[in-house]
Specification:
Distance between the termini: 56 Å
Protein name: Glutamate ABC transporter substrate-binding protein
CATH architecture of the largest domain: 3-Layer(aba) Sandwich
Structural class: alpha/beta
CATH class of the largest domain: Alpha Beta
Order of helices and strands: HHEHEEEEHEHEHEEEHEHEHEEEHHHE
Number of helices: 12
Region (Disordered): 30-53
Organism: Nocardioides humi
Domain Solute-binding protein family 3/N-terminal: 74-296
Helix content: 25-40%
Shape: globular
Strand content: 15-25%
Signal peptide: 1-24
Number of strands: 16
């Protein structure tokens, strides 16, 4: 019966996301490399700053922003293709949709250019911005001081929190990170989630996959005991697999999301911030949240207040 349930759940996840039933296993980093790998920083010592969520002042100078696009007439944006409700391929029409996609679309329209979406992994976010292959990343990316040394961020457009997903039969008995001691917990490579869970509960056996879909398949195959990540992502996983649950729990960390850009594209960042300001003011932010995240998170939310002055 367990085998049947696993097969059904796996097929459900694969159909919903139009992704292959497989994953790229990623070797765990050595202890002195964990911080660098999770943050995207090249050093092993975390970088400190006064306020990582502080971005550049908003500006509606569209001409200056358009000049910084790598390709004339196009905004090339890196997104997720398998994060249900955030950035995923809709099986009904094969279109990329979700919370993050809406923000990418709004900025492209404000710039008056074509939106060119590229599906990338979490590990590809910073390298592809640095190389100029992408103009922007809208892929549930946490703003932190380490990443500011390599890329630039917009003002925070959503405040997520890191939590844990377990089997549905364990939902009522999960009591926090201490429950995970000695257990295998999965998170995508090159995310802050891996370093966070190891810091909070050192006895966790961290297991990495290329993305959260890979973690879900590992969970369904009995290769891991739990999954950790942002509440937005875990809620989407639980919506796909009825044998999982995100139990009531205190947040492990705060995970403020920012749109990411090449470090030198300050004019583009400023313009994106002006678009985000408009979306907060005219109700578009709330409408997007209510459509994509509220049904799975089941809580009301308000847009985060921007912090400027960098």
């Amino acid at each position: 019966m367990r085998r049947i349930r696993v097969l059904v759940a796996t097929l459900t996840a694969c159909v919903a996301l139009l992704s292959a039933c497989g994953y790229d296993a990623t070797p765990l980093p050595k202890p002195d490399e964990e911080s660098a790998a999770s943050s995207g920083s090249s050093g092993s010592t975390p970088v400190e700053c006064d306020n990582a969520t502080q971005s550049y002042d908003a500006s509606d100078d569209k001409a200056a922003a358009v000049k910084q696009l790598t390709n004339k007439g196009r905004l090339v944006v890196g997104v997720s293709g398998d994060t249900y409700k955030m950035g995923f391929t809709d099986p009904t029409d094969a279109e990329l949709k979700g919370f993050d996609i809406e923000f990418a679309d709004a900025i492209a329209k404000a710039l008056g250019v074509t939106l060119d979406l590229r599906v990338i992994s979490a590990a590809e976010r910073i390298p592809k911005l640095e190389s100029g292959e992408l103009d922007m990343v809208a892929r549930n990316m946490t703003v932190n001081c380490d990443r500011w040394t390599q890329v630039a961020f917009s003002a925070v457009y959503y405040n997520a929190t890191q939590k844990v997903l377990v089997g549905s039969t364990e939902g009522d008995t999960y009591t926090g990170p201490a429950s995970l001691a000695g257990k295998r917990v999965c998170a995508p490579a090159a995310t802050t989630s891996v370093a966070n869970i190891k810091k909070i509960e050192p006895d966790v056996v961290a297991v990495e996959a290329a993305n959260h879909t890979g973690c879900l398949i590992k969970f369904q195959n009995g290769e891991v005991d739990a999954i950790t990540g942002d509440d937005t992502v875990l809620a989407g996983l639980a919506a796909q697999d009825p044998y999982t649950a995100v139990p009531q729990q205190d947040k492990l960390t705060d995970e403020p999301y920012g749109l990411a850009f090449n470090k030198d594209d300050v004019a583009l960042v400023r313009f994106a911030n002006s678009v985000l300001d408009q979306m907060r003011a005219d109700g578009r932010w709330t409408a997007i949240y209510d459509e994509w995240l509220k049904p799975t998170l089941t809580v009301d939310a308000t847009p985060p207040a921007p912090a400027y002055g960098r």
